[in-house]
């Protein structure tokens, strides 16, 4: 079906036409009528149809009767021949067609925007030439081609993509690689609206927004970069109740609280709260650079003392994380398999004048949670006297020591000092005197030994 319209000079069969800036008036059975003069359409124009070559039915013959020299039948439904170009790539059956930068010529389109119809045959001519193909007319607005059609355009078969591949990242990678094809002179597919809702995702090489409301920011590839202009700052503030943004402004006054973190364009940072470096599972430090040697040092806390180690803390942490750990009984215990010498000086001072056994208690402290072997020493005193004994004990831990944290072990040993009663002194020799009757001599009692305890 077609209808007669007044067209500009040079418009012929197969041309895509749109509404031009000029009007004309003519008389009809309904009185004086006014209509637009159609022109060869470009993407900026509102396309209305294609100049028909052999319409089955034509309306508005009154206009053609009054102006036969500048009227043309414009096909607005059904099928017709249309001029096409491969400026946007080869055309396949079913591709959507739209006006191009070549006035009056249609090209395939994958993007949202106004279309004039769908191709009913393939075309693979040169970009500089035009030809006519059969098209089904449908002047409407399209939301663009489906994802599979876009991937096929770039030579990617959607059926070959594993299910583990993120389709969104793949599409963005394709868009980034072909972004240079879009220039200031390109025909842009544009949408101007108030609200866009997407149930799955929005994919774009660049997003401009005044307020970004989100829960998670993650990198597309590896890094996330924040750019600051000269004198700019990255500011984190605490928003109180009623200070979050909404679709139509905010539900309360703007947040005016003191920033909790500020980072300026030269790397200075100001925190309003405390800073925690590392964790129990992965303790760390702070890298500082020597003002003279310019070498990095890792400043950290070890056993409660502030120490510094040459090198960056991040490198030292990475080395610790990648080193091969020794066999461990559990994830929270460490094992020391090498002998650990522990020396302690023990002084035992005892004083006695008794012939009874004397027991002295010795305490040895060692920084290891392991059994400590000691040998009891027995000293025999042959006569009552006052003695002082002093000894040094060295204990070597030869078994693996398992400990969750440094501990102090206490071992108690007993040194037994036994005394032995001396034999009785012999009786003095008798002095000379008139020999009395000899008295019987009693044998000296045998010495007794008190067993050691």
Describe this structure in words.
The chain is mostly beta strands. Among the domains are: 144 residues, Virus Head Decoration Protein, Chain: A (Beta Barrel), CATH 2.40.300; 36 residues, no CATH class. The chain contains 4 helices and 26 strands. A 6-stranded mixed β-sheet has the order 3-2-4-6-1-5. β15 and β16 form a beta hairpin. It is elongated and about 105 Å long.
By CATH reckoning, the class of the domain at 2-145 would read Mainly Beta
The percent of residues in helical segments reads under 10%
**What is the terminal separation in angstroms?**
127 Å
Strand line-up of the largest beta sheet: 3-2-4-6-1-5
* Distinct helical segment count: 4
- Based on secondary structure, the structural category is mainly beta
Q: Major β-sheet, in short?
A: 6 strands, mixed
Give Rg in angstroms. 51 Å
Beta-strand share of residues: 25-35%
List keywords for this structure.
6-stranded mixed beta sheet, elongated, mainly beta, 453 residues, Virus Head Decoration Protein, Chain: A, 5-stranded antiparallel beta sheet, 26 strands
Short overview:
By secondary structure, this protein is mainly β. The chain is 8% helix and 34% strand. The chain has helices at 61-66, 147-153, 167-177, 313-322, and strands at 2-6, 16-28, 31-40, 47-51, 58-59, 71-75, 79-84, 96-99, 106-109, 113-119, 131-142, 233-236, 245-246, 249-250, 261-264, 269-271, 286-289, 296-302, 305-310, 334-336, 340-349, 358-366, 378-381, 388-397, 401-403, 409-419.
What's the SSE blueprint?
Layout: E1 2-6, E2 16-28, E3 31-40, E4 47-51, E5 58-59, H1 61-66, E6 71-75, E7 79-84, E8 96-99, E9 106-109, E10 113-119, E11 131-142, H2 147-153, H3 167-177, E12 233-236, E13 245-246, E14 249-250, E15 261-264, E16 269-271, E17 286-289, E18 296-302, E19 305-310, H4 313-322, E20 334-336, E21 340-349, E22 358-366, E23 378-381, E24 388-397, E25 401-403, E26 409-419
